[in-house]
Write a structure and sequence with these properties.
This protein is α/β, with parallel strands linked by helices. The protein contains 14 helices and eleven strands. The chain has two domains: about 200 residues, P-loop containing nucleotide triphosphate hydrolases (Rossmann fold, 3-Layer(aba) Sandwich); about 100 residues, Magnesium chelatase subunit I, C-Terminal domain (Helicase, Ruva Protein, domain 3). The relative contact order is 0.15.
Length: about 325
């Protein structure tokens, strides 16, 4: 990857974030993390209270990267076949016809995913991990890019089901949109609503890149971003400490280690570098690992959060010094 390609890649990333930011009022860092997760070919779970723009952000992002998008509203009566599809008997032709579900898209918006029971939630497991689905014994691949952007309300809310641990582990990042930081942010939301003259302006958004370019950016992340052995050791130490923490029943899995490696490479590309530095890892470590930590029952009842554990681990492991680009 030469300097020209690196510069153009950074410009493409900035353009995507600018396009999303033209509609979504929020922290630029949140947009950077969302883009990094998608560039790393990962899925994102947004958890926050209703009305904070989670769905809007997911829809705008899908438009900005020039990809097809479909939406599933998760409800208590949702069936797995409503997501992946089903074989339907067509009497007029005397045979079954496969009707593909909304999972056959590039960006799947799984809205309020924890409003559906675990059986429906688990329908996404194969798609998220293996980029394929199986319908009545027939396995069908999903076209790249394939990214799940899921939203959920806090599990303390009535009518929600906790996501299975296996599914939580398949989300590269867990993010929160949060409330506007100040009065100016709140006013900006109102001004834009008056300007749009409608609640959902996503139909009017022009893509910042097309799907071919986005796939090229994903290949850069996978193949051209160097990560030093010292950085990998830094990641390994934090993951191992999470497993040894006295408040943790189950620590971060190897999938979590890989997630942190992948997302740190994406952050490097967004910043215009072809190598990872410790700050890239620090920026996303809590978002990548907190939801993978299962606390002891006692600490869960006391209200301890996974992020507190990861914050402690981050303080205990010294960051490697003098880590730069690839030697030679």
């Amino acid at each position: 990857m030469n300097e020209h390609e690196l510069r153009e890649a950074r410009q493409s990333c900035e353009l995507i974030m600018d396009r999303v930011g033209s509609v979504f009022v929020g922290n630029r860092l949140l947009l950077r993390k969302l883009l990094a997760a998608a560039l790393a070919n990962g899925h994102v779970l947004f958890e926050d209270y209703p009305g904070l723009g989670k769905t809007l952000l997911a829809k705008v992002f899908a438009k900005a990267i020039g990809s097809d998008t479909r939406r599933v509203q998760f409800t208590p009566d949702l069936l797995p076949s409503d997501i992946v599809g089903v074989n339907v008997w067509r009497q007029n032709v005397g045979s079954f016809e496969m009707v593909r579900g909304p999972v056959f898209t590039n960006v799947l918006l799984a809205d309020e995913i924890n409003r559906a029971p675990p059986r429906a939630q688990s329908a996404l497991l194969e798609a998220m991990e293996e980029r394929q689905v199986t319908i009545d014994g027939t396995t069908l691949p999903l076209e790249p890019p394939f990214v799940v952007l899921a939203t959920q309300n806090p599990i303390e809310q009535e009518g929600t089901y906790p996501l299975p641990e296996a599914q939580l582990d398949r989300f590269l990042l867990k993010l929160s949109t949060g409330y506007p930081a100040n009065n100016d942010g709140e006013m900006d939301i109102l001004r834009r609503r008056v300007q749009w003259q409608k609640d959902d302006p996503t139909d009017d958004i022009e893509p910042a890149v097309d799907s071919v370019r986005f796939l090229e950016l994903q290949r850069y992340v996978e193949n051209d971003i160097y990560i030093d052995e010292a950085i990998m050791d830094y990641i390994t130490q934090m993951v191992r400490l999470s497993r040894e923490h006295p408040r943790v029943a189950v620590g971060v899995s190897p999938r979590g280690s890989l997630a942190l490696l992948r997302i740190s490479r994406s952050i490097a590309l967004i910043h215009g570098r072809d190598y990872v530095v410790p700050d890239d890892v620090k920026m996303v470590v809590a978002d990548a690992l907190s939801h993978r930590v299962i606390l002891t029952i006692e600490d869960t009842l006391e209200g301890v959060r996974g992020q507190e554990i990861i914050d402690e681990v981050l303080q205990q492991v010294p960051a490697p010094a003098d880590v730069g680009g690839k030697a030679g």
